[in-house]
Structures are given as C-alpha cells and as structure tokens.
C-alpha cells in the first residue's frame, strides 16, 4: 500500500520547552529517524540547530525561523539533519565535516542507506519522491572549532567537538542554564555507532567528556529530552556495555 501524502502546512510541528528553546520536528517521520530541530531564542539573534529532511521548506512553514539574522548550526552532516540547511545564508558545521556540507551527496550523508518508505508514517506532498531526493548545499559553509562560543546576545553556547557517531559531530553547551544540545552522539534511544565514518574510540572519549559537565537538561538529536542525571546513567551504561 502506498503511504498517505501530507500537505506542507501540516508537515512540521513545534513544542515550546523551558529556557526559550523550541523543538521543531516532522511528526510523519518515524521516531527512530525523526530529527529534532532546536530553535534557541537570544536577545541579539536566534539560533537553529539542525534542519531535518528538507523535503518540505522549513523556514516557510515554521514561524520561529522567519527571523533574518538567525545563526544556523548543523550538529553533523547526515541527511536527516541537513536537508534544509540551504535555506539559511550561512550554515555552521565542524571543520571535520565542512567538505560534506559543501557538497552533500546521498552516499556520504547516508540518504542512500536509509531513505525509504520504512522511515515514514506518511510522505510529503507530491512531487516528493525518494528517488529524486537531493540535498542542496548552503550558499556559504562556515567551519566551527572546539571551544568556539556562539553568541546570541544574552546567551552563549560553547561548541564541544564530539566525534564518534561522525568525525565532525558537535554538542552545544550553555553553562548558565546547564543545557546541552547533544546532537546524535547521545539521545534517549538506540544509538548508531557503525556508520562509514563512525569510530568507537572517539565515541568513548566524547561520552566521557560530556559526563564531566554539570548538565541539567539534554536536548538530543532524536527522541524526547531528558535530565542530566539520566545522561550520566546512559553514558555509564554505554561505556560498560562496550567495555571502553
């Protein structure tokens, strides 16, 4: 049976969290594959972290993203996180994956491996099709480095390089609110550790680094947000299971 088609106005949904953070996601994609897009409001400008599949225009259909001076950050360059990155004038990504974002083919971004009806509860409206899916590169790609501070005016987010899931994966840390945006290194669900550019040694080092932070709230790349206490449990369990 063919899947239902969903019109563009219904493709995205938003959910306001604490501390001026909004979750944007695509509810018609199954939870395991559904990317969390995070919008953070600052006094000087807002920030959006990750961009979803890109099969439906993101900024056109999500009011929070209408702001012109919006800092756009990719946690890494897998297709489910960078599909709409081209809608932002400059997209920031760690230097280790700058080349992928600048030329995002379906192989290196994993679209060839994962994109199929199995991902979806319903599909975007026609003319979308899996076979014609392509990611458009942003007009400008701006490399990020570990320790760099992203300044939103009244809010500062530190870039933490977290290789493992992918070589240029990052997390963002706001010490003032003890909030971690963790990307795909860790979330409260099955983690993916065996991709073409994954590395378990790097993964373990990144996990240990995040464990040292006094985290109160974690907003992951997939699945619901969770507490810093649960983060510690997840990391300890992962390290024990992998004997790393």
TrEMBL record:
One of its GO terms (molecular function) is hydrolase activity. Residues 34-222 form the Metallo-beta-lactamase domain. Keywords: Hydrolase. Coiled coil: none annotated. InterPro entries: Metallo-B-lactamas (IPR001279), NDM-1-like (IPR050855), RibonucZ/Hydroxyglut_hydro (IPR036866). PANTHER family: ACYL-COENZYME A THIOESTERASE MBLAC2, METALLO-BETA-LACTAMASE DOMAIN-CONTAINING. This is MBL fold metallo-hydrolase. It comes from Vreelandella glaciei.
């Amino acid at each position: 049976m063919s899947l239902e088609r969903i019109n563009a106005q219904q493709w995205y949904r938003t959910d306001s969290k604490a501390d001026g953070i909004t979750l944007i996601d695509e509810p018609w994609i199954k939870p395991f594959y559904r990317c969390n897009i995070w919008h953070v409001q600052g006094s000087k400008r807002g920030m959006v972290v990750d961009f979803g599949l890109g099969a439906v225009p993101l900024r056109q259909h999500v009011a929070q993203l209408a702001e012109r001076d919006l800092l756009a950050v990719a946690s890494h360059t897998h297709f489910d996180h960078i599909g709409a990155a081209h809608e932002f004038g400059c997209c920031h990504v760690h230097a280790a994956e700058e080349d992928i974002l600048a030329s995002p083919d379906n192989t290196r971004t994993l679209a060839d491996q994962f994109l199929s009806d199995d991902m979806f509860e319903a599909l975007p409206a026609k003319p979308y099709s899996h076979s014609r899916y392509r990611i458009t590169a942003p007009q400008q790609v701006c490399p990020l480095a570990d320790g760099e501070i992203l300044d939103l005016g009244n809010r500062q987010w530190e870039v933490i390089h977290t290789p493992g899931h992918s070589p240029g994966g990052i997390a963002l840390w706001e010490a003032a609110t003890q909030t971690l945006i963790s990307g795909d290194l860790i979330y409260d669900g099955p983690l993916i550790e065996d991709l073409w550019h994954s590395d378990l040694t790097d993964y373990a080092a990144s996990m240990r680094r995040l464990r040292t932070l006094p985290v109160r709230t974690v907003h992951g790349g997939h699945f619901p947000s969770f507490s810093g206490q649960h983060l510690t449990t997840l990391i300890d369990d992962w390290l024990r299971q992998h004997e790393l």
